[in-house]
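Suppose you are handed a protein chain with no further information: no name, no annotation, nothing but its sequence. What can you learn? This example shows the usual starting point.
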Amino acid sequence: MQLKLVTVFPHKFLISGFDGVEIHGAHGFLIDQFLKDEINDRTDEYGGSLENRCRFALEVVDVVVKEIGGDKVGIRLSPFADYSESGAFTVECDT
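A reasonable first move is to predict its three-dimensional structure. Written in structure tokens, the prediction is:
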């Protein structure tokens, strides 16, 4: 995936006087849709397992951190929220 636009905006916010950037990965927005197994039915490297579903979010965070530094980046997640019937975030675990 191309994340070129993501690299432009964080730097502009810092130039404008903001202290940092929060990536919105919650409330049914794009990153949240990749994370939710009820919505993400992809069969490529961005779907299926928990690791694959997290890949897009981690790539976005990585690009922004490389642009402005990790101390200026946050990410908002809503793993247990059920927006637009998307279902809560489920984790496969062995017990």
